[in-house]
């Protein structure tokens, strides 16, 4: 077992090697910048021990993230479903290889035992596998031919809505995060996600796995910082198509959902998120558009 | 659409040179280039348009006008192996005076018969203004040597036919031998002399509306005065979508060349309702100037009696019965 | 002068009889199975073709909305949501049949109240309304097979607000899937076109649906607002303008109320140089002049490949000369009346803007009736993508012609709008059709056709054209609890 990767040891014992600490950065357009604002904020474990200074993203970082997500949309949405499935499965592979790192980071971020953290990592890996398998099946399950009363061939298919803005769950730092971003990516959307404000570090490490998973840059963009500060900009951004408020407490959702109405965003604000249950398809359905195509049948 | 301008047309169809269409008639390749460069026809869209036109409601004065116009457009036709001089004489009487009780009923446009009965028809119809049309060119299949077809035409013309209804070689058309079809039409046109040439496409054998459009243009480029749907011996014969495409062809040909050519629908048109719907189509697709026997005809036999019965209904207000029109 | 003295083919008037509509002097709202006077204003609904009053309608007020929602709640909990699907199904089949039986009456009534040509109400609106009930009737006892889990649940009370462009058809689009899935309904038709919805209420009463399952409230925007704010409403479905849709989305934001929106559009109808030009011209005409252009999915932007621009515009102009504008009840009328003075003013204003922006305005020679609300079919050429007539939904018989050079440019221009309801593509090349259909951001892509509708075919938009689908299996989702 490696030494506690996310935590900080105050002093180096004479015989012990000095650990190389990680800088936790944003993930935008496939790169790992610090916040353009230069700000960071302390992230602690539940006991209040400092874990790291995470980047505190600004509205301009959010703007850049949306730009990157929009730029990546054409390529990701038009990639074959087979290819998207391969990439998502590759993410699971990359996470599996960093299993111990994620366990340690979850223990650090959330407290609790290593067994619970391990279960969370395993569930998060399995969640990628679940969604990876959906990518080339979803359209078959929800799309199809419609037998119209006339000489036309008519079919409906789901298509990605576009750029999805997500506020990730605040509690479950890894499984919660994966459970909201994976379905949006599966159907071909690109994502700008604000990680848990207090527990962002496992998500940051996940983006390091994403960067080596053949996920094109910009398909997922991660912001860490204050949800209160960032979410209103996400909700009102006119180039964001969908808003997932899962990580926003019910009491705070109304103004965000109202801002989203200005551009008729698709808003997902579920009452609960059951991370233990099989995910089902409702999150896949939340951010797709049904396109129906007609063509005459003639000679 | 665009057509390469070029050298001289070997076949030299009349009137097309000025519109830049001369090259189109040179050989298989140039004809193919032109005909396949025409816009396609979407079958479903064409059928929908034809069906929409059929919903026009033609009542009272408009219906009266349509009935008389339709009567004046009829090529009263008998094309049976059992035709005789007696049958043709009877038909000619009906053509010149469709309603023995009502002199205000106009005469039909023409009587259409086989070549050997042309002389009989000419004799009966002299002075009536009713034209004598003859099918020719090994009607209805067209499967004969060109020389035979030309003799067929020449004899009909010599017997006094003023209109010749030829059939195209559908086999040649469907196998892409456009120049062969073109040259035959040109040759027949020459054999017609001053007689008007109606070119029967036999659209029921061409099957697709794309082929109907191409055959229409081929016949028009080759000098046909009319393009005609059918022999009446193949089903389907005239249908609304086919009529639509042929009317578009003469409309577009006139726009390109300034020459107004005609359309004749033949086969299967039996009721006034159908005839009036076709007149609506002529009116709205080709234009009002085509609503004239010089540019639009119905090849029919039983249609005339239905027109007469509907005319009676408009005149008397009572529905008519078959005993009040003559059987020919 | 005899009937045979005409010298030209002038179509004589062929009017459908107004008496067929069985117009009543006054209409009442329908609440809890009873017809009663609404407690709002009594207003006259007028014939937009003549400006003559047709009937008086006792509109609802907020108290009526509360009553109707309470009645719908009672019906939902008391009977309807527990009724076996097979029994709900038979009620819907009854409604479908009854609409067919009274089809001619409904068609004439619709044309009187809305101003649309009788041939459209007769051949499109009413048959499609009946077909919609037929389609969803069959779903009511098969919901477990629809892909929403083995035992999908209804949501509850649905508040439904519909526009004036297809009054009965929109009522059918809303009511049929809601009832099939076990919801109960409070429907508010548009203020200018309440008559067929209230007649549908009569049909529903005759079909013996339990009281409160369907409630129909005539009224204006304030009645709609009351319905939106009514806490007892679990689900809102709205078809109408994007501006109102946004307000509605805002007012239910994060409230837990389910919402589906079918809003505006500015559809591109894209014509390539290899298109079947005659059919494309028909598609352009159908696209923008069907129902006077009062169609959210209207093909109001013609994107024509520059190489065939002149040919297509010329053929279009020739074709428009044959359109017949006038009495909506005349069976030969192609273009009816604009639905209201307000809408006419908007169409006029935007057409004037188009002219001021420098586009070339063209209309066929046609005489507009002296009374009523009329606007001629209008084509703007020489417009730019940046002009208001290329960006804003006009919702009238006004076409803006733009050009493109390459397929990618066509896609880019077509998608260059906050809307995304529909699009048209005209080309004889199969692979290009699918390439275009794949890239167009629109809920409905009509390839080599336009403005086709069918109960089995999902309809709805991307982006600011709204969300949710109506029609087909997909249309059920808007009225079922989503799986956990």
CATH topology of chain B: TIM Barrel
Which superfamily, in CATH terms, is the homologous superfamily of chain B? Aldolase class I
Q: Kindly, what is the distance between the CA atoms of the first and last residues of chain B, rounded to a whole number of angstroms?
A: 48 Å
Element order of chain A: H for helix, E for strand: EEHHHHHEEEHEHEHEHEHE
In the CATH hierarchy, what is the class of chain B? Answer: Alpha Beta
The best one-word shape of chain B is globular
* Count of discrete domains of chain B: 1
CATH topology of chain A: Aldehyde Dehydrogenase, Chain A, domain 1
Could you estimate the helical fraction of the residues of chain B in percent? Answer: 40-55%
CATH architecture of chain A: 3-Layer(aba) Sandwich
Q: What portion of residues of chain A belong to β-strands?
A: 15-25%
Which quaternary structure do these chains form?
heterotrimer
Q: What summary fits the major beta sheet of chain B? A: 8 strands, parallel, barrel
| Uncertain residue segments of chain A | 1-6
CATH class of chain A: Alpha Beta
Mind telling me the CATH superfamily name of chain A? Aldehyde Dehydrogenase, Chain A, domain 1
Main structural class of chain A = alpha/beta
Main-sheet strand order of chain A equals 7-6-5-8-9
Describe the structure.
The complex is a heterotrimer of chains A (299), B (328) and C (484). With 299 residues, chain A is α/β, with parallel strands linked by helices. Chain A has a single domain, classed as Aldehyde Dehydrogenase, Chain A, domain 1 (3-Layer(aba) Sandwich). Chain A has helices spanning 59-78, 81-97, 99-110, 114-134, 138-142, 175-186, 201-210, 227-236, 253-261, 282-286; strands at residues 40-44, 50-55, 144-145, 152-160, 163-167, 190-194, 220-223, 242-244, 266-268, 288-296. The radius of gyration of chain A is 20 Å and the shape is globular. In chain A, 53% of the residues are buried. Mean pLDDT of chain A is 95; it is low at 1-6. By secondary structure, chain B is of the alpha/beta class. Chain B is built from 13 helices and eight strands. In chain B, strand 1 (74-77), helix 4 (85-96) and strand 2 (110-113) form a beta-alpha-beta unit. In chain B, helix 3 packs across helix 12. The radius of gyration of chain B is 19 Å and the shape is globular. With 484 residues, chain C is α/β, with parallel strands linked by helices. Chain C has two domains: 18-263 and 464-477, Aldehyde Dehydrogenase, Chain A, domain 1 (3-Layer(aba) Sandwich); 268-457, 3-Layer(aba) Sandwich (Aldehyde Dehydrogenase, Chain A, domain 2), CATH 3.40.309.10. In chain C, 37% of the residues lie in helices and 16% in strands. Chain C is built from 15 helices and 18 strands. In chain C, the strands form four sheets. In chain C, strands 13-14-15-12-11-16-17 form a seven-stranded mixed beta sheet, with helices on both faces. In chain C, strands 8-7-6-9-10-18 form a six-stranded mixed beta sheet, with helices on both faces. Chain C has a three-stranded mixed beta sheet with strand order 1-5-4, covered by helices on one side. In chain C, strand 7 (184-188), helix 6 and strand 8 (214-216) form a beta-alpha-beta unit. The relative contact order of chain C is 0.13. The mean pLDDT of chain C is 97. Chains A and C meet through strand 4, helix 9 and strand 10 of A and helix 8, helix 14, strand 17 and strand 18 of C.
